[in-house]
Amino acid sequence: MQTELTIRTRGQGLYEFTPEVRDWLAPVEKDGLLTVFVRHTSCSLVIQENADPDVQTDLQAFYSRLVPSSDHPSMTYLRHTYEGVDDMPAHIKAVMMPVSLSIPVRNGKPVLGTWQGIFLFEHRAAPHSRKVAAHFA
Amino acid sequence: MQTELTIRTRGQGLYEFTPEVRDWLAPVEKDGLLTVFVRHTSCSLVIQENADPDVQTDLQAFYSRLVPSSDHPSMTYLRHTYEGVDDMPAHIKAVMMPVSLSIPVRNGKPVLGTWQGIFLFEHRAAPHSRKVAAHFA
Amino acid sequence: MQTELTIRTRGQGLYEFTPEVRDWLAPVEKDGLLTVFVRHTSCSLVIQENADPDVQTDLQAFYSRLVPSSDHPSMTYLRHTYEGVDDMPAHIKAVMMPVSLSIPVRNGKPVLGTWQGIFLFEHRAAPHSRKVAAHFA
Q: Which chain B residues are Cβ-neighbours of A101 within 8 angstroms?
């Protein structure tokens, strides 16, 4: 069973799509394995706390400092700069965080912990329409 | 085939659970795919060398420096600090390292390389009981 | 369906093996899930842009700075140094980037985005022969 989800982003940050995943799996009522895979090289899929929104703000703040824009004095060695100052840092972050996640499913429900949500982490500044391939078996 | 393993941790560092995984798979004697998924947002699952224990010490030493405590002068921008100085750094590391691992299995044996072990990487200082969902198909 | 691919590396950097994966899957003509898993602790599997080769150069440049050689003044705390100055940094990077990737497959084709390629990211300086286990179901 496969589908493709579309996540619309409006700048860097985390976008939760746990409800879309739950809705797609709910009719299944079976055990299995869910895999989500993002079809882009400048955003990531992460599991994180969905209780306190400050966690998401802090995550973005940390990674913006760890991988600064390509116009930052510490990043002058970068060559791939013609797609924008946020583009090569986005590729760097996309290597550091997951492109695919696999989650066991029980009775049609992903076995997420109490505070775990599934997020797309957008690393580009401009709005994007992101495609996430989902597979269940 | 699914189960849930419990890993008890006593502070930051790597805890190997390869034997528990091997024991669970051994009766299977089939080819397939093993997936492990940790149901928490402040620890990770990693594959690493299980020969020289200094590797594990060094891994923890590096990541403690890369993501310091939230009371460190370089981390004053963090907002999510009320759950302890090690909590937000734990979330940051949990985004940087895997939450799920998928390993092909041959005749009931995960095809790990000679020096590869499966570890839970605990990012919190206090003892925790960590739940790892395992799926084989 | 399982196989093992061998990727020969000649120093640090990214080695694309998307064609080998496509060739193996092509006769299948079915939907399913592809998983690749690298059987080593000093290299990684990543999905990245395969259009502009500068992206690969920049990725390596960034990670070499983030995790310098163990003879760098900032890395004197490392203990596992007897296998070479690039060995412990390789383990550190292998924890930060994926060891396994799972990609949905449609009609025998992995649903990679337009610019996505599958790469082995070699973290060691010396030539290596790397084993990648592949699973399709």
A: 99-100
User: A72: which 2 tokens?
Assistant: 């930052």
User: Higher-confidence residue: A101 or B29?
Assistant: A101
The percentage of residues in chain A with a pLDDT greater than 70, rounded to a whole number, is 100
Rg over alpha carbons for chain A, rounded to the nearest Å, is 16
- CB-based contacts of C61, cutoff 8 Å, min separation 6: A77, A78
A48 and A14 in contact (C-beta within 8 Å)? Answer: yes
Distance (Å) from the alpha carbon of A32 to chain B's nearest alpha carbon: 8
Find the farthest-apart pair of alpha carbons in chain B and give their distance in angstroms, rounded: 53
Residue type at B98 in one-letter notation: P
Burial of C105 (0-12, 13-18, 19+ CB in 10 A): buried
Alpha carbons A105 and A109: distance in angstroms, whole number: 5
- Reading the block at residue C40, the tokens are 């080593």
Band (A85; pLDDT cuts 50, 70, 90): very high
The SS3 call for residue C128 is: strand
Rounded to two decimals, the ipTM of the complex is 0.96
Write the DSSP symbol of residue B126: S
Mean pLDDT, range B14-21, rounded to an integer: 98
Q: In this complex, do A40 and C116 lie within 8 Å of one another by their Cβ atoms?
A: yes
Stated pTM of the model: 0.97
Contacts of C36 (CB under 8 A, 6+ apart): C5, C21, C45, C100, C101, C118, C132, C133, C134, C135
| Pairwise CB contact (< 8 Å): C59 & A133 | no
CB B42 within 8 A of CB B90: yes
Q: How many CB pairs under 8 A join A and B?
A: 81
- pLDDT score, position B73: 98
Q: Give partners of A (≥3 CB pairs < 8 A).
A: B, C
* Residues B45 and B121 sit within 8 Å (Cβ to Cβ): yes
Q: Note the pLDDT of residue A84.
A: 97
Contact C89, C123 (CB under 8 A): yes
